[in-house]
Request: fold
Amino acid sequence: MTPTIKDVAAHAGFSIATVSRAINAPHTVNPVTLDKVRQSIDALHFRPSPLGRQLRGERTRLIGVILPTLANPVFAECLQGIDELASAQGYRLMLMTTQYDAERERHAIETLREQRVEGLILTVADADTHPLLDELDRAGLLYVLMHNDTVRRPSVAVDNRLAAYDGVRMLIAHGHRRILMLAGTLAASDRARQRHLGYSQAMQQAGLTPAPALEVDFNAEELSPAVLAHLTSGANRPSALFCSNDLLAMVVMRGLRRARLQIPHDMSILGFDGLAMGELLSPPLATICAPNREIGCAAWQRLLARVTGSYEAMSETSLTLTLPHSLREGATIAAISNRNEPSPLRASATVERPFA
Reply:
């Protein structure tokens, strides 16, 4: 049976984190400790060639970055934050994209490991159940996730559920009662699932009935006729749409215009991401803003602290770091007067705000 880093740690009498530092950043480890780890590696024949070279002190100063796409400016903004800090601190980056495809994710990780990266910054479809992350843990390759809302793994993100809750409450405060959420495939994104939970919580606490998310192709540049008909026909069509990301909101706005609907007079729109280009639209997009560049910077800082062995000295000892979100009102939300019904917000005024 092939030995793992856990076996090496048990044999040497040290933690997995200490053995990982000995493998990935030997210059940060006490010489006596490093010697014991090397002896255990030799005894167990734990000899992956890239790691063996690193044990001889040959650092690559190369960090791998794995993102779903650069077509979405969210990830480009994160990458900008990473690149600025990496360049300033003398590190190189190697970037790969995956389109949320499991085989491409596996290929990207294998390729970057072959290139002897000292750590990874990545975004995956579902952090809590991702088998490749379990493999990285067993192999001792250090990583930090971005935008993955998880408590089990090192990550930097916003609280997607709370952010969506706050955004939908803003729609409700404007008098909207028929609010529908649009998203890509929920099974492909832990973030979208958390956002739908926040939507549902806001609706329920206002005495409203949440609807299942309307799932659409997140790569589509146009709304399908069936989706457009669902949004625009019938007496009970929604008065407001909460889109799980800004790019989807832009696609929706274009589709509604082609259907001769006016925004926000006929339909209010709320996005999620806070992309700068949303402010250039007419009307400017209302959105929930995530600090994408800051998320990239924080992910870099936390990964570098792990790689250099200073992670334990960081002020935040939690695996996860949650950065604050904000709301940008834009001009795509119109107020609705519900004269014949009590305000949903007044009806639920005694209910505590969750996730604060």
In short: The two ends are 47 Å apart (CA to CA). The chain is about 40% helix and 15% strand. Residues 292-308 form the longest helix (17 residues).
